[in-house]
Amino acid sequence: MARNVGRKLVVDVHTHLYPQAYIDLLAQRTEVPFVRRWEPTGQFYLCNRTPQNSNGRGSNLSPSRPPGRILDAHYHQISEKISFMDHHQIDISVLSLGNPWLDFVDEDKAEDFAMVINNATNEICGQHPGRLFFFGALPLTAAESIIIGEIERLKTLQLCRGIVMGTEGLGAGLDDPRLLPIYTALAEASLPIFLHPGYGLPGSVWGPKGSEYGQVLPLSLGFPMESTIALTRLYLSGVFDKVPELQIIVAHSGGCLPFLAGRLEACIEHDRKWDDDGKLTSDRSTLWNALRNNIYLDGVIFDKVGLRAAIEASGVDRVMFGTDHPFFAPLGGEKTFPAMTVNRDAVRDVFPEDDEGYDLVMGENAVRVLGLQAGISDS
Ligand code: URA
Ligand code: ZN
Q1: ∠ CA 366-314-135, rounded to 5°
Q2: Cα(165)–Cα(152) distance, rounded to whole angstroms?
Q3: Residue nearest to atom 1 of ligand 1 (CA)
């Protein structure tokens, strides 16, 4: 693709790919999550365990659809990713595996699977020099030494720029002290975490009518609340005091965190237990400090109101554009994804006359923070 002269780089930091190696891994499984071919169409579908409606079923239970998410070519073929990028004038994408990542893999297989998936993704990125980078997947069900070994190995993979992680961590959430050595290894390797939700909230939250609204409640509210709670727990446990160099890029503009940070701070300041524990010192590192020093937010929030909150909370130099491709595909099969154009227009709405702010969020922050080589070779 010829580079647009005079246009600043557009970088997508939130864009998923399920490499063929991952699909093959899930196709061998008999339990959820698994991948099968849907015979009538020959398409793959992913049967995952979340998000679900209150009746415990996904939204796709009809005879004309498989019981899960159809993984069309956009989900697994890099040629589709590249044509999506070309069509939407995205110069660079930082790929991440989608949920459920490697969270389900048996302990004894996790190391090999992580290596296979990460090597495959590195290789795919290498086929499009300058245009593709990736966040690696960690073998979180394996022993600590294996997880740390993979972090050290990822550091040596040419196109890896961080790791993608769900909110369960090793199974007990992100405030789990067993994660501290992992956080430390990531910080030492200068690999940020791309924190992404995948489990949603318990189905009961959506009430008996939840399924009548399709996937709207779990995806619009469940995912962002999941991230908000996970990250808040991480902050409250003091992870950023213990590992001050840790950097986390939070999906969906940090969920509700930018909006709720003030209230969270007020709750901390008024909490008897925090006072009794001697934690309300004047030099306490606040959530605002964490937002400005340890947390980056993506721009996948679809409106200027949420995006403004994200920028206000973390700073204009800490918010990075994303699309969540191939999720949010247009229902009519159109080539243009509103998940690109609406999120881009929200950035312009926030910076109607400020090209510097616009360029930072649309690409320059990602290039600087993730060390993405500028420039695109023709492909
Ligand atoms: N976005 C994702 O990344 N995963 C989903 O399952 C849905 C939306
Ligand atoms: Zn996503």
Answers
A1: 35
A2: 16
A3: 327
DSSP 374: P
Tens digit of pLDDT for each residue in 249-276?
999 999 999 999 999 999 999 999 999 9
What is the spatial distance between Cα 349 and Cα 345, in angstroms, rounded to a whole number?
6
Average pLDDT, the chain: 93
Q: Is the peptide bond before 326 cis (omega within 30 degrees of 0)?
A: yes
For ligand 1, mutation pick of 47, 69, 223 (most atoms within 8 Å of CB): 223
Ligand 1 first shell, C-beta below 6 A? 16, 98-99, 219, 324, 327
ipTM of the complex: 0.94
Average pLDDT over residues 340-367: 97
From the CA of 251, give the closest atom in ligand 1. Answer: 3
As a whole number of angstroms, the distance between CA 363 and CA 111 comes to 33
For the whole model, what pTM was predicted? 0.94
Ligand nearest to the CA of 250: 2
**Ligand nearest to the Cα of 252, by number:** 2
Q: Which residues contact 15 (CB under 8 A, 6 or more apart)?
A: 81, 93, 94, 95, 96, 322, 323, 324, 325
Task: Considering every ligand atom shown, identify the ligand nearest to the alpha carbon of residue 328 and give its number.
Answer: 1
Tell me which amino acid residue 273 is.
Answer: K
| Helices (H), ranges, the chain | 20-27, 73-76, 78-87, 107-126, 144-156, 180-188, 216-217, 223-236, 239-242, 257-269, 272-276, 287-293, 304-314, 338-350, 355-359, 365-370
* Nearest protein CA to atom 8 of ligand 1, as residue: 327
- Mean of the pLDDT values across residues 27-44? 90
- For residue 224, how many other CB atoms are within 10 A of its CB? 23
| Cβ partners under 8 Å of residue 233, min gap 6 | 173, 174, 175
